[in-house]
Amino acid sequence: MNTPHKRRVSTGGALVAAVLVIGVAGIVYSRVQQGGDAAPAARAMLAGDAAPALQGTPDPKASALIPAGFTFVTPGTLTVATHPGQLPLADYGADNKQIVGVEPDIARLIADGLGLKLVLVPVAWPDWPLGLQSGKYDAVISNITVTEARKQKFDFSSYRYDLLGIYTRTDGPIQKITTPADVAGLKVVVGASTNQDQILRAWDQQNIAAGLKPVEYQYFDDAVVGRLAVITGRADVSFEPNATGAYSARDGKVRRVGLFPGGWPDAAAISVTTRKGSGLAEPITQALNTQIASGTYAQALKRWNVSEEAVAQSQTNPPGLPNL
Asked: Over 80: is that where the pLDDT of 69 sits?
């Protein structure tokens, strides 16, 4: 759900940004080396669409950081927009009304940390930037990757690493994909116009220039149909956000064979998004760090099978992705 990116880092902050990006990339590389050939906790008991709400740890320090002049959409309430598209990120629950997933869980933890009620607003993905800028909601939590271009208009509080996974059927012959050459000649299910689609095309061009076979792209409007293509062998692999791939892998029908940063070769973080200069980012970052310290954050990620994307500490306006 991310668009092409632009980077603009000031000269004074370039060294710090580079160190942070290298650090994130190192963590991604380490996780690939430790277990790129299997989805984590594939058969673990996970939350479903009837998942009960978590309760966050109150943080008076975070509440005190809210600017005195900040005006919430509804007084005493944190109004958060999210796109209910697919679990484990966010989707409608069993009652077709309540929105559940890791994104709503993170929103709940933040609201509890700030001592506020929570209201979730469902939005279409293309609508969140204008809605946030116009004041329809206080924040957006919807798998948004930090980019240098977006940082010109919004503030961010990181809460997950941006990772992409490559998945194949459990009994398939492919064991590991770690380099662009490994996808040469494969039938790949990928979402059109996504980050992973652009990354795959860059790999494909590199492979073709080296005399390798081209990728066979397979696009499906329905993610379920695309997954079925992989399970039945009509496609070799899927290239998708690791969060959705890992969650789907809980039934044991597919396994992960590759893990890459979401802006390959650059790494960045998924973050809570707020209006630029509103002053809400710092309180949210503080509230997130309290949830990390108390263990409620780890609990939220674990029950949606995205623990690998956990950050050790939330940061306000971390380095963002450049152009792909």
From this structure: yes
